[in-house]
Specification:
Number of helices: 8
Radius of gyration: 22 Å
Order of helices and strands: EEEEHEHEEEEHHHEEEEHEEEEHH
Number of strands: 17
Length: 352
Amino acid sequence: MRSVYDNWKTAETEADGFAGANTPGGFRSSYDTIADEGKLERVYIIKGGSGTGKSTLMHRIASAAEKQGKCCARYLCGSDPDSLDCVVIGGRIAVLDGTAPHVREMKLPGASSAIIDVSRFWDPAKLEPYREELAQRAAVKAAAYASCTRWLAAADEAHRERLALAERIFNRRKAEAFAGRFLDRLGKTQPGERLELWSHAVTMKGRWRTGGRPAAHTFAVRDYYGLAPVFLDLLDGMMTERRIGHTAFRLPLTGTAASLYLEPQGIAVTASEEEGTQINMKRFVLEIPEGIRGRIRLAGEITESCLNAAADALKDAAEHHFAVESVYRPAMDFKALNRYGDTVIREILARL
């Protein structure tokens, strides 16, 4: 039977997640989690248009920091899995794209945040003749994203129904007892808060997922009649009740975790058919009433169709997005931007 975790392509760029995602409620950013200005020493916010070198600059900064032995967390763009939206260096400094749809402004200007303004390196005279075209393309993109949101809302409704049906055949008492023993066997865990990040995203290039954080040990939850997200949600809740610090990586659908990651043990519990200690959902199935199988299957098929339609809607946005990039690139002085980038890199490395 089809699983909601099927048919997502894995991004080639190593990443800790997406910095945001298109959801049934519109675009949602994770900046408040991954780039909390109240917790980090410094947040650099890049401002500029499409195709102005923001992602490339973040790659340069991360690479330079890694050459000095610093650990860097990378977060992909929720609309383009080939681009970065944020890097966090050594858990201390964040550099992020602060332009739409994930607009971010300085909260403590100068004291803990700064602007990296790449707009100073474009020539307005080369952009002004394209004003009408840029406005038209922006309108088409906005319509495509609105369509994507509606399709994701439809997918979410079908998925909610599948979760409700799965609950009817889920032996919750048995699953809770198993989850309690599972957490007890983990031994000493790190107390802390629950963090939530996007591991999957519907983008202009289709449906993508990140590869996930490297784990010392993986427990693979094998889906059965849509029970994997129900079990992961239960386990997530129990971890939170016990104040076990963990990160919940999720899909852009209601109540759907893809994996739970515990630090510092490096333990991942993930919805997967891949290698790892297997947790088979068949053990938690009650007697299945007549007709439930077909309805679960139908809800899954509708969810899948609507997710694909959401991705197709964004393909309409892609044509115009990359056309806008082709307007901005010739207007940019990338040599000057690279020199400026060198200065920014030196400043960041000096803070480490």
